[in-house]
Amino acid sequence: MDYSQEYKQKLVSADEAVKLIKSGDWVDYGWCNGTVDVLDQALAKRTDELKNVNLRGGILLKPLAVFAREDAGEHFTWNSWHMSGIERKLIARGCAYYSPIRYSELPRYYRESSCPDDVAMIMVAPMDKHGYFNFGPNASHLGAMCETAKHVIVEVNENMPRCLGGTECGIHISDVTYIVEGNNAPIGELGAGGPATDVDKKVAQLIVDQIPNGACLQLGIGGMPNAVGSLIAESDLKDLGVHTEMYVDAFVDIARAGKINGSKKNIDRFRQVYGFGAGTKKMYDYLDENPELMSAPVSYTNDIRSIAALDNFISINNCVDIDLFGQISSESSGIKQISGAGGQLDFVLGAYLSNGGKSFICCSSTFTDKQGVMHSRIRPTLAEGSIVTDTRANTHYVVTEYGMVNLKGLSSWQKAEALISVAHPDFRDELIAEAEKMHIWRRSNK
């Protein structure tokens, strides 16, 4: 069937499309590098006409036009499923808020919510001959979002890679209200930061030594997971698989080094499965039209049952702080929101249930604040207001540059002893003293 006529009928300017939005509406902006651009600029021009417009999205890779004005918070509120640095600045201005949820539950939330989107706006790849607009590397929750929204506006960008997959990775023109042709600017990139530090490399080596041939990998974002990826690419490991929430540049390096073929996966053999991807143009070019990759909703990629079905599942994630009880905070520092719950807990639980699986929470033993003062990431208790991402009952392996410990099943004094053993030496006596006060230390241990 030729969909060109329907395309012409639904094609409008961005200014025309955003006239659908009214004061009090809930409006979705897409996700990560699929966040709308020209539609955002068009909506910003209507600022004075609108009040209390609630925007949804997450992992912003560049500032939004609607929040350029100082009084933007009187007109728009940003509700984020996962924070980036840009969104943290909006929190400080009082116009952005984090929406806590396990990422795997997001598609279900959209389908069961009593507060559906009035308008959903997403950046997509150009329509194919079958009438579908591909979500690019953002299957995530967008299928459920489009199913339940009252109106769907797609912003077409020729630079959006067409990411193949299983289900819910695109929308048909028959389900679209309006089509807007964007400015075809390069889609947002997310670098891995600077080169790996000596600390990153030490942590990475400890983890890589635990990875068997045929393992299935999940990597989080950040310097340490990427350092692990670099070491894997240089290693003798083979027959690796990928099943991850987020696809990152490190996977491209591992694949191009010939380490990934997915032949040992129990499900989705030979496919690299991911919920969304954010990285550099190198990664986007690799994802584009690549049949080895499988773009799938997070209700599948992050489902504990999917993860546990894969033998030798290796989950590698960062954290902000750990306390001596084994509680992991990966999303806030005190009351300061940093990122979000994401899928970390799902992968911690799923990896442990996997036959031969392991989950690793890694971090540097210390950090230095803006005043140049060094602090331990292993604390007696989490800072007041810090959010527990992984409870003490679920934490498996913890890794710093000083070693690796398995906390599963340990009593409170054993956990404290193990964590202090991988803390920075300058802080160990202080941590022991605090552990004694909390009655989780045995004098015979020292």
TrEMBL record:
Name the Enzyme Commission number(s) assigned to this protein.
Answer: 2.8.3.-
Q: Which positions carry the signal peptide feature in this UniProt record?
A: none
Keyword tags: Fatty acid metabolism, Lipid metabolism, Transferase
Q: Does the keyword Lipid metabolism apply?
A: yes
Which biological process, per GO, is one annotated for this protein? acetate metabolic process
One Gene Ontology term of the molecular function aspect: acetate CoA-transferase activity
Q: Which HAMAP family match?
A: But_acet_CoA_trans, But_CoA_trans
Q: What does this protein do?
A: Coenzyme A-transferase that converts butyryl-CoA to butyrate.
The family assignment reads: Belongs to the acetyl-CoA hydrolase/transferase family. Butyryl-CoA CoA-transferase subfamily.
Q: What is this protein called?
A: Butyryl-CoA:acetate CoA-transferase
Origin organism is Roseburia inulinivorans
